Amino acid sequence: MFGLLKSAFVAAALLLAAFASPNIAEARSFCAPRDNIVKILDKRFSEKRQAIGLANQKGLVELYVSAGGTWSMVRTNVQGVSCVIASGHAWEQAPLATLLPGA
After folding, report:
1. What are the strands of the beta sheet with 31-33, ordered from one edge?
2. Partner of 97 for a Cys bridge, out of 7, 58, 65, 103, CB 3.0 to 4.6 A?
3. DSSP helix/strand/coil, 84
4. Rounded to two decimals, what is the model's pTM?
């Protein structure tokens, strides 16, 4: 099951990289303690965490998505500082089967 979720998260991350907002450089400068970032994403955009993965054992990468289609990718280091590294709109969740090779 873990391998399946990891594959889905990797596919989602690749999609984000390919279609990321042109304001990625601007978004990268938005850093704060993780709890603050999560509260802002919830209050301003109604975004909830949809995926999580380890980033080279040096932190986490999380994907937050709203019902309206806005999304944010957040990286958190081991000290608990999070940075929004990408964001955008028109997020669509693909069925899990279409994300897996050979499915």
Report:
1. 31-33, 81-88, 71-77, 59-65, 48-54
2. 103
3. strand
4. 0.68
